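> forwarded from #structure-qc
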């Protein structure tokens, strides 16, 4: 089985939960009380999102995240 790499953007919400998003996949979000729990949940939701998207062929390339100061 081929492995594919996805990037998860992680933030912490006002209740202290970690919230993750995969920018390559539409509406691919999850949360967890810890980073480990979040990442386990993200693995599950990525599989579900891939099923909705129609597989890996339609996934755009992730370029990166840039920091900007204002």
């Amino acid at each position: 089985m081929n492995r594919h790499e996805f990037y998860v953007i992680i933030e912490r919400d006002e209740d202290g939960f970690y919230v993750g998003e995969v920018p390559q996949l539409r509406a691919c979000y999850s949360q967890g009380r810890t980073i480990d729990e979040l990442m386990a949940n993200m693995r599950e939701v990525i599989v579900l999102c891939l099923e909705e998207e129609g597989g890996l062929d339609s996934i755009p390339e992730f370029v990166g995240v840039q920091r900007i100061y204002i």
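QC bot note: The beta strands are 9-12, 18-21, 29-32. The first helix runs from residue 35 to 53.
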